[in-house]
Amino acid sequence: MLQLPFRDRTEAGRLLGVHLANRDFPKDSIVLGLPRGGVAVAFEVARALGFPLDVIVVRKLGVPWQPELAMGAITSGGVRVLDEKLIRQEGISHEDIDTVAVREGQEAERRERIYREGRSALELRNRTVILVDDGLATGSTMLAAVKCVKSFEPSSVIAAVPVASRQACMHLRQVADECVSLAVPEHFGSVGEWYQDFRQTSDAEVRDFLRRPAC
Asked: What class, spelled out in words, does domain 9-57+120-211 have in CATH?
């Protein structure tokens, strides 16, 4: 029986990997981690499944006067997902959205460069792609990642996380082929509350995970 909170992202990734290992995935499937924390989880998943690991960089678009509140997300390729309901409720202008999106889009491009270290992105066309993060609160970053990956014409896209809110799972199931979460707590405040150790993953750690052979 699963016991929360997880000790850390490594334990969560191992448990998620064991759960997914019971599935019959195509042999050319690929695991993509969402930096930063999701890459630590994704490394363990890729190792458990014997699939290659790559990264997809997604940045949260925070409300200008409350940056921790996500009004959407953007990928390094410029794909945006917006929470239109929240934007209307908060009275956020198109100009404010564009300002935040430009800034976060540039940061996503910067991180993409430093994480890859000159390596080319892995081919996604006609492959099963397993997108992994350390958890889903609103799900906006994962939604952007799914939308971005689908533009590369994979055979299927699966969102997989150790823990998620019911709302996020509901939204993801509308856009991904499947959403897998080990735990879906009834009361969900933030992803960090479901980890004993939720210290920030550094850029150096992300690069290290991507250099190490996962399969």
From this structure: alpha beta
